[in-house]
Design brief:
This protein is mostly beta strands. The protein is about 10% helix and about 35% strand. The chain binds zinc ion.
């Protein structure tokens, strides 16, 4: 737990950390995040900072998992993309101050905003900022490569077993898993404009289930 409300995450990948520590950078052991306090950003540390100043989740690196599912509109097979962390730190929401470090395989979804640096890495033609017709949420969304249907995150991560929700190990082995060694930061889980008080889920455990043997 970091008891400071405003921390500035640093994209430090180097093993030689003596210099940055001298400049006022701190390391969180649980999440693996390098950060500095808002009044500590000076000199050399500024080269590790992203051009985004509002965020509620960060990770020291991330995985982009590209899998396949059947579109629920045209029933054809399409690629879908998901962001996964093995460790991260999230802003404490309900009234508290500070940040909570977590070590657990976790998918991030309902991503509202990303810095340029990360957009370049996730680059996929059918994953882009869009607005859901049903919920009014505006976030980075998967779309069917064949018919363009919006494939909403709630279904992909919380409902449909065919997608990231309860993803089978067999499916994960066939998926493209890309690890990006770069600090990840984003704003996720913003409610829709017409329902600003709604709580929007944006994290779920990545549980890779083993399918039982096929029935005889
Ligand atoms: Zn489709």
């Amino acid at each position: 737990m970091i008891n400071i409300d405003h921390i500035i995450p640093l994209n430090i990948q180097s093993d030689n950390v003596t210099d940055v520590t001298c400049q006022g950078a701190y390391f969180d052991n649980v999440s693996g995040i390098w950060y500095t306090e808002s009044d500590g950003l000076k000199g050399a540390l500024s080269e590790y900072v992203y051009s985004m100043n509002s965020y509620n989740i960060m990770a020291p690196y991330y995985l982009v998992i590209t899998s396949k599912m059947h579109c629920w509109n045209c029933h054809q097979s399409t690629r879908i993309h998901g962001v996964m962390f093995t460790r991260f730190i999230k802003k404490i929401q309900d009234g508290g101050e500070g940040w909570l470090p977590v070590r657990r395989n976790t998918f991030l979804f309902h991503i509202n905003a990303l810095p340029e640096e990360i957009m370049k890495d996730i680059k996929a033609s059918n994953y882009y900022l869009d607005k859901s017709k049903t919920t009014g949420l505006r976030y980075w969304m998967n779309h069917c490569e064949i018919c363009g249907e919006r494939l909403g995150d709630y279904e992909l991560f919380c409902v449909e077993d065919d997608a990231f929700h309860r993803m089978a190990v067999e499916k994960l082995l066939r998926a493209n898993v890309r690890k990006v060694n770069r600090l990840f930061i984003s704003t996720a889980g913003n409610p829709a404009e017409h329902a600003p008080k709604d709580v929007v889920r944006y994290l779920c455990d990545a549980r890779f289930v083993m399918n039982g043997p096929a029935a005889p």
